[in-house]
Amino acid sequence: MKNTDTNLILAAQTGDPKAISRLLTLCHADARRYAYRHCAASDVDDAVQESLLLMSRKIHTLKAAAAFSSWLFVVIKRECRRLERILLKHEPLDDETAEQQLAHRTDTDLRIDLAHALESLPAHYLEVVLLRDFEELTIAEIAGKLKEPAGAIKSRLHRARELVREYLLAQ
User: Where does the chain hold its CATH 1.10.10.10 domain(s)?
Assistant: First the structure.
């Protein structure tokens, strides 16, 4: 951390609105990069915005300016987890209701929605879906290619498909 960054953090801790604004602007890109690793793609903007808002309100509680970066990443990771819990909290639809909802869409609309759903997946989920459903590899082949246990691949594939389903039903 540069001396000017430390001075900016110290000024922000005193409640200086310009320092807070400048500090949040400086850390925004790092916050987005970190959120992309820990959030669903659709939650990145919300996680960053909520995290930076929280930090602007609580900056005065930071004990050491040198801990700012660590604090930033902890706050973002917590926000990503919170958003994920919200996403998973809904009541799942039974298969018949889900089929009825999807049956009212045209093939073109379903293809577009599926493409958007796949784009919204975190990279590690997207990878297993593409390998299994598009390249038609077996679980054992995917596990070998990714050098991970087959159980982990099955779990990730199941979760990825659930996220795609949730996305399609939310549209």
Answer: 95-170
